[in-house]
User: Fold these one by one.
Assistant:
Number 1:
Amino acid sequence: MTRYIPFLFVFLWSTGFIGAKMGLPYAEPYTFLHIRMVLTCLLLFVAILLLKKRWPTSWKLTGHVAFSGGLIHIGYLGSVFTSIAMGMPSGMTALVCGLQPLLTAVAAYPILGERVKPMQWAGLFLGIVGVMLVLSEKIDLANPDQLFNGFSMAAVGFAFLAVTSITASSLYQKKYCTEMPLMTGTFIQYLVAAIAYTVLAYSLETVEVQWTGEFIFALFWLIFVPSFGAISLLMWMIKQGAASKVASLFYLIPPVTALEAFLLFDETLGLIAVLGMVVVSLGVWLAIKN
């Protein structure tokens, strides 16, 4: 049963980009994340009380957990939402974030001592090629002047900040947070994010929300699916496996996101994109198998 967890994680995580695209027209990014994190904390805290889950055994571990949570929920998630809110397509943002496995593989050896085998490097390289193929139809390389039409370089910068943050979070989590109780540790991480986004929203934004049916659906989908489901699976996989192998799963997220965008928003997928999905799958198989 556990062998299917990575594929479930990929699906749940990919819907985060779709949920952001669906909900951001009705609320500013930090306001959206403020509401999401506060509600997530409340629901998770109730579950912790009912299930009587244990808390981290030391303040040192609590600090590591909180810092790791800041990297993923503020550095990564906040940057993704900001990038999409600034006009960068969700698929392109997913493409940049899909570079995480390469960054993780490069950093895992000096930080964690995890050696990356030649076939894993081959898989990582194929992953990059496949991601580029999947989303190549969204980028007009023949017209460089219009390459970033509709969004600024700042949006691109936030996308790269996102992938850097989630890479750092994965490595930090693996190095310092392996003893983290899953449910209470996750609550601490969301609490850090809730406080940060409350300050950011009320300091930088109007905190106005259009409570449409689409926004409410996106909000609760993001709370129960990526926030509860995907994050819990990610923490479990980091604890169980090598950081570079877990990171390889992120190569699957851009093509899955592209497929979801096709089904939900009628974005077309050409032959090159389909070929890219096959290449990505092969790359992930090589990285995980070896």
Number 2:
Amino acid sequence: MDPELEAFVPLFPQADFSDPAASRELLAGLAASVPLPDTSGMEVDDLAVPAAGGGPDVPVRLYRPHGARGVVVWLHGGGYVMGDVRSEHPWATRVAAESGAAVLSVGYRLSPENPFPAALDDAYAVLVWAAANAGRLGLDPGRIAVAGHSAGGGLAAALALRARDEHGPAIRFQLLNQPQLDDRQETWSQRNFTATPWVDRDKVAASWRHYLGGRPATPYAAPGRAEDLTGLPPAYIATAEFCPNRDEDVRYALRLLQAGVSVELHQWPGTFHGSQAIVSADVSRRQNAELGAVLRRALAD
């Protein structure tokens, strides 16, 4: 493990998805303990996007750097169990600042109270809204990316699949950071990473149980199950060495390539799932800067 990260492992909190309420409280406390990010170079607005099918409005926080033209629909991590626009504020601010694009941070509904497809429906509603309202916001509807971390990365991959299948809004790019893609947990990393920091095999399994709610997984719930990956937008996929999701992410990248999709794959040695939150580490600074740079290139003219 990277020595700068390893020094923090004893201090890293342990999420317990068997108690969703406690997990959410832990994440909210962590987010509140982080110094407020600098938003002086952008406008930040809280919005409510109408949900499809008469459901509750979807809370969204819009970050608009000065001169932004591209749009990133950003999906937070948290195992489909925890997280919201408030806890994601540091991440979303950084993505907007580094990419120069507007970021729509989506407060999708959480499981187990709202199992699949609630989160995907919320995210898709925001994608459709972004395409329809980009011009009004001074943004370019032809420059939309979907992106996310962990469970949010899985949602971003599912958005790309659904938009393709339903002839929805055009997505220029998908950025999947340590995405949660396959409920079957059959890869080497899923079977062997049973005591890795922050996230291990058992926590991933609990996350899937909450998200699926006892129903069989479809490719829109677990994109790793999708048989046809043709026609999807170009992708950037990042993995952490000590992450249970690692091998399914690498496999997904290879399958995208075999389906004719342009892919950039970056495996970060010495890192673990979520270690980018340790922003003082050199490897975290490089990871975070790369996410912004990748989106900046993807959404450029």
Number 3:
Amino acid sequence: MRSESVPAPDAGDHLVDPLQDDPRLPTLFGASWPAVQGFHGLLRDQGVLRGLVGPREVARLWERHLVNSAAVVPFLPETGRIVDVGSGAGLPGVVVAAMRPDAEVVLLEPMERRTDWLSEVVDTLGLDNARVLRGRAEDQIGLLEADAVTARAVAALDKLYGWTLPLLRVGGRLVALKGGRAADEAVAAEATGVRLGGGAARILEAPTAPGLESTSVVVVERTSRGTAPAPTPVSRGTESRSRRARRSTKGPRA
């Protein structure tokens, strides 16, 4: 009989990630491998405790989360500014920052506990090209302009367009990781995309490592400013403090 003072082991505790020590991973991540491997360790050790991933996700961090995040990188510019909207645990933003070292990567996240986590990750991994910004995407319109925006598991495209397309310069692109409903969402969001200056949505296969399942990305270029009125900026957001921050400011909570 189990003592009530001793918690039962979590159902995911005994599971082992099938891609742990897989030789395909260093090849996939290339020069960013040390940083991505370090990020995996942080998520494995602290992700559940800090409410960033579910217990069962620990055994699926590589393929379901980190490799999946890497799938967006070939569709992103090598330089310029990339904004990861709703960065959460740092997926895909931290992986993007590691794999695009010559780009400025903004990890935009409204929840303070998550921006605290992101700041710790950026510091620990030494990602000097990444900065953490606490705030909502819609409040950054007119204040933050990007060459590319990424998003993963944030919202349906109809809503996501409203948050992301106005952040893009004309000629910039949204690259969103999407699942099996991508085509239906693209059709439902077409009018919103046109109103915000977005071109036709392209649903593209995004391969990862040989033998691993590919994923889908939705790529939308901003071809014009559109006809939607620009909202009045509400807040500049708060750039998260960190020990290494070069531009640390304190602002109102978003």
Number 4:
Amino acid sequence: MAAPNLTLTLVGGPTVLIEYDGFRLLTDPTFDPPGEYQGAYSPVRHRKTDGPALSVERIGKLDAVLLSHDHHFDNLDNAGRALLPHAGTAYTTNSGAQRLGGNALGLAPFETRVLESERKKLFVTATPARHGPIGVDAGDVVGFALGAEQPGDLLYVTGDTLWFEGTAEVARRFSPKLVVLFTGAAEPRGRFHMTMGSEDALEAAHAFPDAALVAVHNEGWGHLRESQDQLLDVFAKFNLAARLTRLEKGKPLPLSW
């Protein structure tokens, strides 16, 4: 595959603008200001501590949204829901597509669709995710693998998940150039993680030895327990500092190989 023209811009939390070869995609849209929030499908009330680096208006036209799940407010908030109808296709879980309707398209794990624009195409494949330890029912979640020439050869967005047999299967099937880890070691309901902490991120680094790594969803909410700085420090201690690239909110990060 030729060196891709790929740029990431961290809006905040799990929200990242992905620009590749004319395509513009957004992960888990969250644009509401700081405050106390409770989603319609969650019993947990969350405290948002930081707002987005970019407004919805500054995001502009989108070809698609990659929505890991619709039922947690820190992955889809009020402003994010309002954005969805104007964003081309909203890829998400099958259950989420039923709740959202409209332009939402549900995908089962490892199901692939082709996103086309101006005679160009991008493969969008849903990937397995487990949002918490076994025994915790946090609802359906998916990640996404993007492919330029074949499924999964460009970028893997983990979505809200721990490292488990499903994410390991993604590594066996695909060889992305970049992995976007949803980290933060979230603890919204007690002393157990609902998203990746440093141990999971190290597993991913081992499983994707040729991929660059970035980490998101590690700031902006009170239930997140591990910051990007802490994760970077762990990687440095394991002599893996070169594998993890820092993302600064609101600052485009061009990537090439």
